Amino acid sequence: MSSAAPLLEPADGKGGEAKRPCGCPPAWLRRLINTEEAWAQLQFAVPMVLTNMSYYGIPLVSVMFSGHLGDVHLAGATLGNSWATVTGYAFVTGMSGALETLCGQAYGARLYRMLGLYLQSSLIMSAVVSMVIAVLWLFTEPLLLCLRQEPEVSRAAAVFIRYQIPGLFAFSFLQCLIRYLQTQSIVLPLVVCSVVPFMLHIALNHLLVNVLGFGLIGASTAISITLWFSCLMLLGYVMQSKEFSETWKGFSADALNYVLPTLKLATPSAIMVCLEYWAFELLVLIAGLLPNSTVSTSLIAMCSSTEAIAYMITYGFSAAVSTRVSNEIGAGNVDMAKNAVAVTLKLSVFLAFSFILLLGFGHGLWARLFSGSKVIVAEFAAITPLLMISIVLDSAQGVLSGVARGCGWQHLAAMTNLVAFYFIGMPLAMLFAFKLNFYTTGLWSGLICGLTCQTSTLVVITARTKWSKIVDAMQQEKANYIA
């Protein structure tokens, strides 16, 4: 298990050099990138990628099991899964981003008790928000019908959503716990508490859907059971482990004093995440209005799924840089924070280029995993160069968004996403697709314009940051803190 020491310190937390890979890297590599920092971030990022992929796979497995029940069940589960992500899971995931700022900076400043208080305040906030989302989910069927969805599919989607309501609360609590551990650079328990439930989830789906015959209800219930199992595993670890003796002092009424400060960061953090999620989902809906909508919708959905899978790699580095920057700001190390940003950007873009090389040579094989249609495979080949560009841009902005969370700039990132996607990206996508008749290529080109604007703005914000002012503000907060 990793210790509670941040990435800027070795495992024993006593200073000195961080653990480095065996052997000395070649001189050209050391000139290109800070190898010690890169190695530390890789050790952090890989477990975070595995954790994210496991949680991403839980509802996906239930959708797959639902698909074997019939076409309507598959369509309902797919629609329900998208609706749950857009209206619920994305929002609570974004809200937990406040802890990346608050807990990360508090840990770097050695205000250890504050981490437990911030965690509790975030759990309270998440419970309230989940109640509101749960009410919305109860009206899934009429809302989908208002959006002109097929009645039978809407009914199936509503069933798939309804039995996930208990799991929504578990998921929102999980996101808070993940950020609490992440900001202390404790990542291996996250892998265990996500991979083990994921494996059990497959068996649970088989039992409820195939053996006991609960169908769509069973597939949906399995999600809730798995998420609660994972949540209780992680909560049990936090409450029992001695690693958290300084940051977790038990439940306290003092946490109520930090609900509003947490909410002030959590709200723009949630908006920042949701605006980007919604843009991709909106693109799929717009594709349904194009000529030959069956092909165009499938193609844009394939591109969105491919982008999401590529982003999972970036997510690990986004979490790493968020933790590194917030820890270093809390500790007052401006140069270390800047170095962490530079190293993470290089690593993320390098891995994005590796991914697009594989995509460039294997796009035909990849497309055939989604569809056996020769038309769709050919169309995917034509749009692949644009998809490559968007993946590189998404990788860069993902890291810069992590920097924003580490510094507490969620409001700036939220405004950036609003302008980039909804004032630039989406209008241009519709212009290219409908007026200039570029169709699916036009839609994705518009998205690239939005991503370019988003990434460029975040680069400018990061480059023009007065790091010393952020550190001074943190030191002032530290001076006013009473344990």
UniProtKB/TrEMBL annotation:
Membrane topology category: Multi-pass membrane protein
UniProt GO MF annotations: antiporter activity; transmembrane transporter activity; xenobiotic transmembrane transporter activity
Endpoints of the signal sequence: none
Transmembrane annotation, as ranges: 117-139, 159-178, 185-204, 216-238, 299-322, 343-363, 375-393, 414-436, 442-461
Residue stretches of biased makeup (Basic and acidic residues): 11-20
One protein family per Pfam: MatE
Region Disordered: start-end pairs: 1-20
Keyword Transmembrane: yes
GO CC aspect terms: membrane
Location within or outside the cell: Membrane
Domain of life: Eukaryota
UniProt keyword terms in alphabetical order: Membrane, Transmembrane, Transmembrane helix
Claim: Transferase is one of the keywords in the record: no
One GO term (biological process): xenobiotic detoxification by transmembrane export across the plasma membrane
Family membership noted in the UniProt record: Belongs to the multi antimicrobial extrusion (MATE) (TC 2.A.66.1) family.
Protein name: Protein DETOXIFICATION
Protein species of origin: Triticum aestivum (Wheat)
Taxonomic classification: Eukaryota, Viridiplantae, Streptophyta, Embryophyta, Tracheophyta
Gene: LOC123128714
